[in-house]
Amino acid sequence: xxxITRFPPSPTGNLHIGSVRTALFNYLFARHHxxxxxxxxxxxxxxxxxxxxxxxxxxxxSWLGLTFDPICDKQYWRQSERxxxxxxxxxxxxxxxxxxxxxxxxxxxxxxxxxxxxxxLSVSRRARERGAEGKRRDEVIRFKNPNKKISFEDLIRGxxxxxxxxxxxxxxxxxxxxxxxxxxxxxxxxxxxxxxxLRGEDHISNxxxxxxxxxxxxxxxxxxAHIPLILAPDRSKLSKRHGAVSVTEYxxxxxxxxxxxxxxxxxxxxxxxDREIFSLAELVQVFDLSKVQKGGAIFNEEKLRWIxxxxxxxxxxxEFVRHIPESLLAGKTDIQRExxxxxxxxxxxxxxxxxxxxxxxxxxxxxxxPTYEKELLRWKKSGESPTLHLEAVRSLLENLPAASFxxxxxxEVIFPYAEEKGKGNVLWPMRVALSGRAESPDPFALAxxxxxxxxxxxxxxxxxxxx
Length: 467
Ligand code: GLU
Description:
Radius of gyration: 31 Å
Distance between the termini: 82 Å
CATH architecture of the domain at 324-466: Orthogonal Bundle
Region (Disordered): 105-137
Bound molecules: glutamic acid
Family: Belongs to the class-I aminoacyl-tRNA synthetase family. Glutamate--tRNA ligase type 1 subfamily.
Largest sheet: 4 strands, antiparallel
Shape: elongated
Protein name: Glutamate--tRNA ligase
Number of strands: 13
Function: Catalyzes the attachment of glutamate to tRNA(Glu) in a two-step reaction: glutamate is first activated by ATP to form Glu-AMP and then transferred to the acceptor end of tRNA(Glu).
EC number: 6.1.1.17
């Protein structure tokens, strides 16, 4: 099967999680079939399109490793550079009577919406992309609606039928030099030889308009597949108010690109098994459009974090260390640094968690002797005074050389005593003495991270406070 897909973002904002999932599906589908995928910037809305957004989109795609096939010696197309081409097509439509220059009073242009089909989620976006609103024009180019039924077989949603009579004579260009969105899409899809249009379901009601234009221009119709939207947990459309939505925000918060791609692939698609972890190459192998669901896909940040953790586990510890905020390691010995890295490697799901933990004071015990109520030293289930056990721990550790302050060795030294006296009785006060907290890494890890000198000092301090 010949497959050529496309990813045509409008550069009116940073690359959104929802758009990149669409890009990914197009990429997987094309690569799975040994086909091609092209990139183009749809910037017919010149006021809202910005070069900085194009750059953000390019940076995001290249960070993720999604590659596109060049076309006519270009890495991507930009619609604003193709006006001559659109003009030729437009002129053909006008010359053959399929479109006409329409004199408008400012009021008729604004009230005769070319877009009356009800579609809850896309109205405002289409209004924006049409770009016709709000501008006072004496003249526009309208498409002479043949008033017919258009139907197509959506590869995900099945048979879809629209009566286009309701559309009226839609505005397709502001002038011969200023085509609007639908016309440019149809021409570019044809010139790129696109075989499959995979896009968000908010574009469903655009499809009959585009098919009408294709038919008028005598262009081939690609296959269509409208993929479900990504929804926030409250089932509303995913937006800024739900937190991060741009790919670069996720990158900057320390998510791994492999995890983000893996997670996005599972939003609305499933491999037909319970398996959840797939590299990009594996996704290419198994991707199958027939397993894309119809219903909206809920964005679940916890699931994304879980997948990120799965990938983080495979990261080389040396690479991991490079992401640790310097202040967590400053002034520590090599053994301490290793112990701190190990603890972080265990506890962190996303690199950014380390900075978050630092900001919230979670790791304060690493740099400052803790303060706490001495009652906290007493393990809740026991009436026993912790003094005896803290003294025992201190003397066990006093005899251990600083170079042996590693988690495993510390455990060997203290655990037998703890097992004999009751683990809670011994390990609880040790944890509190070292961290000041009821929740923290285990006391062996704490002692290893703090080093011999600080560990002994904090144990003595706890003993003094009990006296
Ligand atoms: N420029 C449109 C968008 O960003 C693409 C629509 C399409 O895929 O045809 O949503």
